[in-house]
């Protein structure tokens, strides 16, 4: 099983392209900051777990896939950038772009039994920290990588107002650390210490939705803790103590819940809450926890104005418009204190082929950390884009 996992890791590693843009998230045992795998539509309205839409795939809750009648796929990517300040004369700018998520939904029985598969980010980091003690002494730390999740899910509508889903997931990725020490008064060349941490293992998921009354939807998703293998591969020395070794980590369980209320055919509002206990649930091979990690949570709320169902209408009436806001406490500490993040989100959907495919755009602007309690303070701007398309589409038109 371990050899199989390592083979899958090498096959999929090229898809782990989402990189972090934050200066936060670097610690001795870090695998990165948590990445919520929203679609661009979910990112724009700041909620997704209970979102009802039969064209856009719900990335957070596979139980919602029972809304789909036809084969549907979605591909998501994005760009992240952040300007950081440490309270001195130093400032930092980081940016990253790449593939985010991809999902495919195949109805075996329309709106009843659904098979689906997807790939999404889990954690990420990619940062460079440099210190110049004097003109002949340079120390640099480069850390990059993160984890992704590939999953297979089965969704079933038990009752007209109740559905559930089960999934098997493969968690994989790598973290690369490179430390450079250069002192020309002692060494003629710079000393590089490079370690490659390849991480892989299996996980599971369960989700459901329930509509207690008309127009009100509740969504829930749960992923239990997962124990992952970590293969450490030094690239700097053949000394016996530095040879590759196999260890493990345990990533904490994840809880997601959401609510959406549809006011009319054209308007809806919702709320999401996510939680992971990285303080007690993130464990090293010996069962110990890491003091740099803390409890993670995120709460987001938003509004969506949907396109008109009229066949002939103006271009602006064919757009979905979204707005939201959120607040989160990140899964790692800085200077021994929790890191807060908050942001405002906006977005819209542009129909590529009306009632059959859309392209979603989303943007977020916000603040991460505080110089009063953390080492850094960042202002960030994120952009997301999703393409959604299905095999065919039927809808009741108004005159």
The whole-angstrom Rg is: 22 Å
Stretches with pLDDT under 50, minimum 5 residues = 1-19, 392-399
Mean pLDDT: 85
Measure the end-to-end span: 59 Å
> Strand order across the biggest sheet?
2-3-4-5-6-7-8-11-12-13-14-15-16-17
Per CATH, the class reads Mainly Beta
Count of DSSP strands: 17
DSSP strand content: over 45%
CATH superfamily: Outer membrane protein transport protein (OMPP1/FadL/TodX)
Query: Would you give the CATH topology?
Result: Porin
- The name of the CATH architecture is Beta Barrel
Total number of domains: 1
**Helix percentage:** under 10%
Mind describing the biggest β-sheet? 14 strands, antiparallel, barrel
| Tertiary shape | globular
Defining key terms:
single chain; 399 residues; mainly beta; Porin; 14-stranded antiparallel barrel; 3 helices; 17 strands; 59% strand; globular; disordered N terminus; disordered C terminus
Task: Please tell me about this protein's structure.
The chain is mainly beta. It has a single domain (2-127, 148-170, 204-223, 258-274, 289-390), classed as Outer membrane protein transport protein (OMPP1/FadL/TodX) (Porin), CATH 2.40.160. The protein contains 3 helices and 17 strands. It has helices at residues 2-12, 40-45, 278-281; strands spanning 33-34, 72-85, 91-109, 113-134, 137-159, 162-183, 191-210, 216-223, 226-234, 245-251, 254-264, 267-277, 295-305, 320-334, 337-353, 357-368, 377-390. The chain has a 14-stranded antiparallel β-barrel with strand order 2-3-4-5-6-7-8-11-12-13-14-15-16-17. The radius of gyration is 22 Å and the shape is globular. It starts with a helix and ends in a 9-residue tail after the last strand.
């Amino acid at each position: 099983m371990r050899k199989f996992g390592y083979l899958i890791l090498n096959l999929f590693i090229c898809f782990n392209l989402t990189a972090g843009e934050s200066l936060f998230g670097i610690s001795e045992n870090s695998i990165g900051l948590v990445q919520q795998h929203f679609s661009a539509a979910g990112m724009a309205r700041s909620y997704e777990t209970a979102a009802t839409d039969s064209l856009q795939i719900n990335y957070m809750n596979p139980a919602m896939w029972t809304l789909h009648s036809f084969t549907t796929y979605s591909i998501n990517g994005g760009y992240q950038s952040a300007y950081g300040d440490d309270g001195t004369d130093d400032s930092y700018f980081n940016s990253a772009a790449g593939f985010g998520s991809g999902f495919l939904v195949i109805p075996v029985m329309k709106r009843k039994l659904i098979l689906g598969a997807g790939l999404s980010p889990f954690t990420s980091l990619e940062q460079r920290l440099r210190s110049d003690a004097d003109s002949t002494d340079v120390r640099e730390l480069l850390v990059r990588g993160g984890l992704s999740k590939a999953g297979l899910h089965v969704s079933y509508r038990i009752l007209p107002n109740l559905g559930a889903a089960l999934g098997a997931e493969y968690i994989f990725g790598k973290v690369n650390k490179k430390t450079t020490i250069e002192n020309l008064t002692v060494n003629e060349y710079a000393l590089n210490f490079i370690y490659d941490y390849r991480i892989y293992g299996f996980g599971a998921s369960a989700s459901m939705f329930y509509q207690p009354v008309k127009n009100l939807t509740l969504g829930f998703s749960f992923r239990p803790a997962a124990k992952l293998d970590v293969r450490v591969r030094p690239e700097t020395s053949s000394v016996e103590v530095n040879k590759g070794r196999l260890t493990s980590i345990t990533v904490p369980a994840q809880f997601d819940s959401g609510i959406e209320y549809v006011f009319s055919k054209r308007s809806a509002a919702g709320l999401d809450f996510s939680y992971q206990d990285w303080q007690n649930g993130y464990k090293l091979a010996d069962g110990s926890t890491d003091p740099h990690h803390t409890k993670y949570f995120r709460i987001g709320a938003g509004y969506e104005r949907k396109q008109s169902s009229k066949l002939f209408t103006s271009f602006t009436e064919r757009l979905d418009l979204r707005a939201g806001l959120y607040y989160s406490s990140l899964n790692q500490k800085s200077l021994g204190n929790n890191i807060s993040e908050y942001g405002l989100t906006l977005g819209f959907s542009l129909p590529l082929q009306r009632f059959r495919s859309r392209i979603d755009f989303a943007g977020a602007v916000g603040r991460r950390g505080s110089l009063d309690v953390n080492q850094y303070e960042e202002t960030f701007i994120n952009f997301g884009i999703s393409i959604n398309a299905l095999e065919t589409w039927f809808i009741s038109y108004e005159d």
